[in-house]
Queue: 3 jobs
Job 1
Amino acid sequence: MRKALTFVLVALLLMSTFMVASCSKGGSSSSSGSQAKTPAKEKVKIQIMVGFGTGTDPSQIAVHEELQAEFNNTVGKEKGIEIEFLTVPYSDAATKFTTLVAAGMTPDICGPVGVMGVAQFIDEWLDLTPYIEKDKIDLSVYDDQLVESNRYNVDGQSKLVGLPIGYYPSALFYNEDIYDRAGLDYPPEEWGTADWTYDKLYEQARQMTLDMWGSDANDPDFDMDNVVQYGYDGTDWSPWRAWVGKFFDENGKSVALGMTDDYKTATMNSPEWVRAFAELERMIYKEKVRPRSDAAAGASLFGDADPLGSNRLGVWETFSWMSYAFESWDANFSWNIGAIPSMDGHVVSATNIDTFVMCRSAKHPDEAWEVYKWLFSDKVYSRLNHNYGGIPAMKNLQAQWLDEQKAERPNINWQVLLDAGAYADNPNNESWVPGYSEVWNEMEFAMASIISGLYDTPEQVAEDLNDEVQDILDEYWASK
């Protein structure tokens, strides 16, 4: 009896083992006989919003689509990540972004975006410092000034919100034909030469500024209400901070932000700010080398073209993103690029910088960082930079950029733009301050009052501006 029982138990044990083995090979007890499948792990989708700056043209979108497919089929497949570029027209970008954030659908990455776009939504960006330190990202591959332009001190906390994808420095773009007719030496190619000052630039500009009777701005009979050619157009097409950023206090610190380090007290009535307004007044009304914006000054002299493109301007201080006009300039006159002069011993190139930022309220920051690193890998970075037309902030790609420019226009001083990176303004001319948009508008209004002639004195302009900005700061901090 015991043997029979043992036999039955062994048989049952063997049957049980067989059934377990069958299940482990994907067997099923269902009547259909189909195999049970383990659900595939769902990929994390990382959305990259484009629209805060360049990147929205059809040819640029095509490059993004190529990169999207490439990532998804290689790195993304390995890491379980899928990227999607979301392109929004520039005019709709701010509203679209705000709507997505409010709906809990924040994109993971935004870019390319300039300093102004960063500043407008400063609280929405993630500090990249912990990720950079964890992965030991070498920041020395970029120009230091361009990295620091993406570092912000917001409400007492410092954060690095992005790495520079490309930059657009300002320089002097000048009409060689007009210089030649005036018998003048061209602006120097080298930055920081001792004798190249704004006083020297004004001296040249006066000889290139002509009224309809042929008198230049040095002539006592010069008629500033009937000018047919100007010598210098200041920092036209640039914000006020592009000009005031050239002025420094007695400790050698830029006064560009116009407020104390804690952002609580406006200092836009300081001697340095008054001096900046006075210099703007000087170039228009005393040196007479830059147009006013009132009707008597012939504000339409430059027409619909950019100032230099009108062929009625000697030299224009502006950003290198004017490259879209180069072809037109080529067809109408000889032109070149020179270094910006010094102001009281300081040389500053107001600079626009593009970056990519990671969104603080997005749901997948770790995966977004993996995408971010891929975007900033050498080969992808180079393709993105070509796509946006900036100068690469990654130093090992700058020689290649220089060769490409020389191949297309061999007579232009392209090295001037590369060397400008060492003189980039810091704080940047678009840097964040509390009450950003309101403060910006007040500064632009103050600048416009000088250019239009609708002001009493530079001192009064500075005082009025300071009062308005202090009210904005007080309101900002009261809401905290």
Note: The chain has two domains: 44-167+352-423, 170-349+432-478.
Job 2
Amino acid sequence: MFEQEKLLEQLGDPYTSKVVERLHRFAYIPPVIIESLAREALNEHWGRDNYALMKYLAVHIAWSIENGRYTFSGNQFYVTAGHLQTRYGTPLYLVFGVNQGSSVIPWRLITAGSQISAPELPAPPEIPPSPNIPKGAEIVMMHDHILGDNAERVPFLNETPPVAQMCAVSGAIQWSLNRNLQLPYWYFGKMNFLVPLYLQNRENITLSPDLIAPIQVNPDYLLVRTVLEPVMPYPNARVAVRRHDQLPPWMLASWAEYVVTASTSQIEDPENGNSNNS
């Protein structure tokens, strides 16, 4: 019942942006338990229906199973709630049991919290490392008009030819990489980086950048898929760090404001979700 191979099969394909949907196919998750977990954990902004928390758990539960960092007894198995802790530093745990009410969804979240009784409690999963960025790698744009709908954020580039826009973005990426400003970033089952783009002002890099670029590290080049508003990839960056205070202050501050109206689709897939709140 608790064989790692079987649990991974029940989880399904890890290479997806719809990890919350994947988790819901794996286990029934009562909202009341998630609300209780959010209250017990160190305070963070999780958005409507705690959807950012659901995404965080969806990724970390899968990592726990992939790492073999789960324990079991009877007809239950236990994982940590990622690296979440109480305000006193106590780890938080999730308890799953067989879902007797469904032949389709195999598991059910029974309880969550810091006071869990189990013969052996699990360790949190390892957060996969981001790949090394090869020195001198070429920066390749996936689209000719990389700024797209975000062009209004850098109006001085509005009338600039696409090639010049690409050169500006490429130069901003290289500038940030030279200063190690990149952030770990989980997307579509893999770890890569977010790179802040300071296109108008570089006097104070503690301030929010103009845009942020998710980059995919390949052996000989860095692929830039798109550029985003700085706040949009927060949930994917949050997954990739142990504590939220390891993210830049500008990202935390802007997320606290943005998440109030952010839709679930924007949280689920920041690279394809509409940037307008809905």
Note: The helical segments are 4-11, 19-26, 31-40, 51-66, 162-178, 234-239, 249-258, 264-268.
Job 3
Amino acid sequence: MIIQKLQDAIADIDALVALTSSDIEDIKLANHQKLGDRLAQKEALISSFERKKALLNTELIKLTLSNDGKSIEEILSGDEADVLTLFKEKLTNLKSINRDYAKFVVTISEFYNSLIDKMFTLDGNGYEKNKLAPATIFAVSA
């Protein structure tokens, strides 16, 4: 029972890693449309993983409560412990890929924000709503 839940969660993690890796490659190639196309799929996978992880947590809590004083490693069989170790490794890999993805996203975001700041300035004194005004590079003199 636990092995199946772990394997189901691992399948979601593997799919998320594959999609995120594809996102990183598409960011490098500036294929931004493909990123948007995969967004719904990633959101569904994240929801699926969260549900599976919650079921797994419930199952592990039941096991620990029924085996007073024993750690998870002592309770699980050898196969279950191996799959749990694989699950942890996959999670670590997902975290690493997400960190790389975040670096790209932040870099691109900062680039676009700086580009917008150079193209437009904000008019206002801080107490009223700021309005975008064309920067001087867009001003035309006749």
Note: Helices lie at 2-28, 32-66, 72-75, 78-119.
